Amino acid sequence: MADASFIHEIVKPTDPLSVWLYLHNERNVIFVAPHWHQGIEISYTVFGSIDDFVINQKHFTTSGGRVLVINSQELHSVYARRNDKSEALSIIFPYAFVNRLCPQIENQVININDTDTFNSIEKEAYIKLQTSLFEMYLVMKSDDKYKNLKLEASSIKVLQLLIQYFAKSKNEYNRKDGTKEFVVNRIQMITKFVHENYYKRISLDEIASEVNISKVYLTKFFKKYMNLTVGQYITNVRVQKAYYDLIGKAGNLTQIASKNGFSTTRAMNKAFIGIYGKNAFTIYKENNN
Q1: Within its chain, how far is the Cα of 20 from the centroid?
Q2: Locate the HTH araC/xylS-type domain: which residues (predicted)?
Q3: How far apart are CA 1 and CA 132, in angstroms?
């Protein structure tokens, strides 16, 4: 998980495809703490909804058919209360793959999340995009012997639609978005430190020193741009990491709590209730029967 400047999530393609694909159909609450990656990500809500999808501080609630794009290095997080009919498709195009096919992407971003601004051509292209994504969903659910060929072809079609109809210059996008580069960079530095050290005791002084700002400024800055405190963010990251350990049977409750920076299992249980509505012990039991 290393980059020249920041720690971020490294995304590997789904073998043997050129892209990373995942169909979300979990029945529990889904929580993904704020993070970023180099690749370009698409979230397509097939059925059901996503309660709160945050991209660069903007909040989106989705329903069936909604497409969201997370551009390279954009901070994003997800919270969704799943039901039996909820399904969503995620696709991540590795940045090097996109750049090789479309070098102009270095100076562009995909601007598709605000559907109210679409012109007639973009509206038509959006329908084609939804159709292609739904076809990918059907192929993923099938046992078609040509499944990988179809998914590879469809993913290229999706990328072509995105860049041909929705790519805008970075300068134009940044003027409308209003997020300053130094803000994004500083947030990435803070989240990098947390993701590197979540399993240890972390102080505000340590984080402030890492990003060369005062503790007071760190507290105000993070709250302003992330809409949560640094302490809440640290807890959220620990909860997400611990959740995957729980369902992956990576030890008992005491071991998982200690591994992920919680002082006690009681502290871990309390944090889980705040996000998942049930404690870690309950989730552990549900996935270890």
Answers
A1: 13
A2: 188-286
A3: 32
User: Can you list the alpha helix ranges (DSSP code H) found in 86-229?
Assistant: 95-101, 120-141, 147-166, 170-177, 181-197, 204-210, 215-226
| Three-state SS at 43 | strand
Residues 213 and 113 in one domain: no
Give the pLDDT confidence of 150-203 residue by residue, as tens digits.
Answer: 999 999 999 999 999 999 988 766 545 555 667 777 887 888 889 889 999 999
Residue 1 lies in a domain: no
Rg (CA), the chain: 20
Q: Does the residue 3 lie in any domain?
A: no
Cα(55)–Cα(191) distance, integer angstroms: 15
**Residue 10 resides in a domain:** no
What is the Cα–Cα distance from 114 to 69, expressed in whole angstroms? 10
Whether residues 86 and 145 fall in one domain = yes
Which has the closest alpha carbon to 131: 154, 159, 103, 164?
154
Are 189 and 242 contained in the same domain? Answer: yes
Q: Evaluate if pTM is beyond 0.70.
A: yes
Angle of CA points 78, 80, 84, to nearest 5°: 145
Q: Are 229 and 219 in contact (CB under 8 A)?
A: yes
Q: Does one domain contain both 37 and 161?
A: yes
CB-based contacts of 49, cutoff 8 Å, min separation 6: 61, 62, 63, 64, 80, 86
**Higher-pLDDT residue of 192, 288:** 192
Q: What is the mean pLDDT of the chain?
A: 86
Question: Please, which pLDDT band fits residue 289 given cuts at 50, 70 and 90?
Answer: low
3-state secondary structure 149-173: HHHHHHHHHHHHHHHHHHEEEHHHH
Helical pair 230-247 and 181-197, crossing angle rounded to 10 deg: 50
